[in-house]
Backbone:
C-alpha cells in the first residue's frame, strides 16, 4: 500500500458515489451506458472470485466486496428500479454486441496469463478481467460521443474513473523503484485504458478550467473515433 494506490482506490470509490448520487438525485439513468456497467460487473466478478479462498487483508477484502456490490447495484437500478430504468435509452448505447469486446479479452486471457498449476483457472479469469477493464469504458465513451455533451455528474464519474487509472500508473512506477515489482499484463492493460480516457480527460479539465465547475463537457466530434 502507498499513497498513489490509496488515491486510486479513493477515486474509484468516488466514481461509484457519483453515479449513485446522479441516479438518486435525478431519478434517471440517462447518459449512463448499461453495456459499460455490465462489463464492469463482469470485470469485478471475474477478478474477485478469489474472495472465497484468498484473504490478504481486511481492506483488500472490503474493497472487493464494495466493487462487486456497487456494480451490481448500478446494473439493478438500470434494469429493474422504477422509475429509473424507464429513462435508459438503449438506442444511444453502443450499437455492437458486448461479445465483440468480451470474446477478444477472453482470448487474450487464455493466451497471456500467469502460470500457476494450483489456480490456473483463476489466473485466466484474472488476466481476462484486466483486458476487459481496459476497454469496458468504450460503450460509455461512445454514448457520450453520440450525445455530443456530457452532464456534470456523468462527466465527473468518467473523470473519476480516469483518475483512478492514472493514480494506479503512478503506483506501478513507485513500486518499480521501491520494491522492483511490476506486472506486464497489468501495465499493458492499464496503458490501453489510460489511452482511451486521455482525450475525454483533456476535454474535461480544459472545459472545467474555462467554464468553471458548473460547465457541462461538450465533446468534439473526433473524440473516441472508434465505433463500439
Residues:
Amino acid at each position: 500500500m502507498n499513497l498513489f494506490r490509496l488515491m486510486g482506490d479513493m477515486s474509484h470509490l468516488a466514481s461509484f458515489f457519483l453515479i449513485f448520487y446522479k441516479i438518486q438525485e435525478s431519478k434517471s439513468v440517462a447518459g449512463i451506458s448499461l453495456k459499460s456497467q455490465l462489463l464492469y460487473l463482469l470485470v469485478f466478478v471475474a477478478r474477485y472470485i478469489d474472495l472465497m479462498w484468498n484473504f490478504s487483508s481486511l481492506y483488500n477484502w472490503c474493497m472487493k466486496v464494495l466493487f462487486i456490490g456497487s456494480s451490481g447495484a448500478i446494473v439493478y437500478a438500470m434494469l429493474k428500479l422504477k422509475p429509473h430504468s424507464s429513462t435508459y435509452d438503449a438506442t444511444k448505447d453502443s450499437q455492437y454486441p458486448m461479445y465483440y469486446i468480451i470474446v477478444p479479452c477472453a482470448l487474450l486471457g487464455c493466451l497471456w496469463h500467469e502460470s500457476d498449476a494450483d489456480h490456473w483457472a483463476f489466473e485466466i479469469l484474472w488476466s481476462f478481467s484486466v483486458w476487459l477493464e481496459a476497454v469496458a469504458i468504450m460503450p460509455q465513451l461512445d454514448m457520450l460521443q453520440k450525445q455530443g455533451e456530457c452532464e456534470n455528474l456523468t462527466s465527473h464519474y468518467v473523470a473519476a474513473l480516469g483518475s483512478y487509472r492514472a493514480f494506479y500508473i503512478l503506483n506501478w512506477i513507485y513500486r518499480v523503484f521501491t520494491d522492483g515489482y511490476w506486472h506486464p499484463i497489468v501495465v499493458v492493460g492499464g496503458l490501453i485504458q489510460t489511452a482511451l480516457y486521455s482525450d475525454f480527460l483533456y476535454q474535461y479539465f480544459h472545459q472545467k478550467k474555462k467554464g468553471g465547475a458548473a460547465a457541462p463537457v461538450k465533446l468534439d466530434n473526433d473524440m473516441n473515433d472508434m465505433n463500439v
User: Anything to note?
Assistant: The helical segments are 3-26, 34-47, 58-79, 99-111, 120-135, 138-147, 152-179, 184-211.
